[in-house]
């Protein structure tokens, strides 16, 4: 599969985005926040991500090494995306696949990632 354009957002719709992601390369991280929130993530360069509603309205949560800027809706509490850097330093967006519109989650097969040990 290749990158495809998807739209999505939080539960209440205050935060919306569009992103080009490859759903054949999703990740299920076992770090404390991803595990508790049930996140399935797809990563894309920040140039392939656009926030289409709620710009500047997201609340941010940092923990551990403060390298991932988790963004969540202050109204409904859903984390639809996060920001950070890829290993090569490229700025990226991590999209919560569960927040994409019209996705059949039974077709998504995330690769486990051991974030708890990092």
UniProtKB/TrEMBL annotation:
<dbReference type="GO" id="GO:0016846">
    <property type="term" value="F:carbon-sulfur lyase activity"/>
</dbReference>
<dbReference type="GO" id="GO:0046872">
    <property type="term" value="F:metal ion binding"/>
</dbReference>
<keyword id="KW-0862">Zinc</keyword>
<feature type="domain" description="CENP-V/GFA">
    <location>
        <begin position="6"/>
        <end position="114"/>
    </location>
</feature>
<dbReference type="InterPro" id="IPR011057">
    <property type="entry name" value="Mss4-like_sf"/>
</dbReference>
<comment type="similarity">
    <text>Belongs to the Gfa family.</text>
</comment>
<protein>
    <submittedName>
        <fullName>Aldehyde-activating protein</fullName>
    </submittedName>
</protein>
<keyword id="KW-0479">Metal-binding</keyword>
<dbReference type="Pfam" id="PF04828">
    <property type="entry name" value="GFA"/>
</dbReference>
<dbReference type="InterPro" id="IPR052355">
    <property type="entry name" value="CENP-V-like"/>
</dbReference>
<dbReference type="InterPro" id="IPR006913">
    <property type="entry name" value="CENP-V/GFA"/>
</dbReference>
